[in-house]
Amino acid sequence: MPLIVKDYTWTQTESMVYLRVPLKGATAEHVDILSTDEYLKVHFPPFLLEAFLFEAVDEAKSTAKIGNGVAVISLPKKIHRLWDHLVLNDKQTKKEIRERALQAHMEKTADGRKEKAVKKQQEKKYALETMMKLEQEERDLIQKMKDEEREKATAELEGWKKRQIQTAVEKPPINLTNRDKVQTLHQASHGCSVNPGEHISVHLFLIKIVLHPMKRLASGSRKEQLDLPAPRSSGTIQIKFTPRVFPTALRESRVPEEEEWLRKQAEARRAGNTELAAELKDLSDEERNPDWLKDKGDKYFATGNYQGAVNAYNLAIRLNSKIPAFYSNRAACHLKLRNLHKALDDTSKALDLLTPPVADNASARARAHVRRGTAFCELEVYTEGLQDYSAAIKIDPQNKVLQADAHRIRQIIQGCITGPEN
């Protein structure tokens, strides 16, 4: 059974109720507070405070502050008047209030998970739309730069064509020798005599196409310069690609948490206590190896020697206190020996070390939750036991045995069946 907290104090005004609960050395992360409009529970293993309130309070405005070894809980009253007592004493009423509080807490937890999932989906959708918008803007900017470069190149080409036509029109008149050459070429091409004064357009064409190249070849001292367009200016277009984030399995994996878990396990394996090694210098090398001691404890447990297994795990923990399996296995031995409070302490320590929660330690977390839930149920603290069994089912949802055990615990809480006889 848990130890019931009785040394709490409470004060009230017409609108508020204040509770001051001493935590007996427990830290804030180990304090579990559950509050509804008619029920209050403060749990810090192995201590428990359950308050079935005299009248209804405003759950949404209730607050709790933890510090200096105490928890101060403020509960606003729905009806402003002084209470005769803080808690009710009717057993049947307590049972009904506990059931309603448990049901309300489970529904609130489920609603919170749904709301969190919807919010996460909306954030993903907004991020995807924002990235698509940025990519479209980047594509539009690149297309605009391409269009400007195309228009610039087209304008330069048109200007060059105009300059070529103007240069051909402004050529100086040819001399007689050149005209004779043109006439000879024209006669050779048409097979007839041509008057030098006729067909001026044909002459100009032949002068441009044939004579000018012949003049350049014949006279090496004078080289006609072609009117070519100036080289295009060089430049660099900066192209940036927006990284795409798709909700694939790889990006949703827990690689950082897994690496953190492996790092912690490696550090725990490397950890060595030189002072303890000096203290235990009379032991053999095998007896100073925590892994060897764990295997020894496992063998003792398998043969039913639970106290021997506890002794082996004790020494293994003294040598290395960072391995969660040592505490979880020792908790199993304490369950067999009916050391239930020790089992609670060991499973809680194992769960503290099994962080962050990753796939590699999922089975170990499930076992620790089941063992702690079993210890709670043996102590007849079925509400806490159901929470641990629910946590184990969340890790292993296909386990039919766990589901059956959790169903039986719910029936015990609801009063459908009685608990196990001690």
Automatic annotation (TrEMBL):
TPR repeat feature ranges: 366-399
Keyword Secreted: no
Domain of life, source organism: Eukaryota
Keyword tRNA-binding: no
Places the protein is found: Cell projection, Neuron projection; Dynein axonemal particle; Nucleus
InterPro entries named in the record: CS_dom, CS_DYX1C1, Dynein_assembly_factor_4, HSP20-like_chaperone, TPR-like_helical_dom_sf, TPR_rpt
Coiled coil stretches, renumbered: 117-158
Domain CS per the UniProt entry, residue ranges: 3-87
Any Gene Ontology CC annotation: nucleus
Pfam family, one: TPR_11
GO molecular function, one term: nuclear estrogen receptor binding
Protein name: Dynein axonemal assembly factor 4
The organism of origin for this protein: Gadus morhua
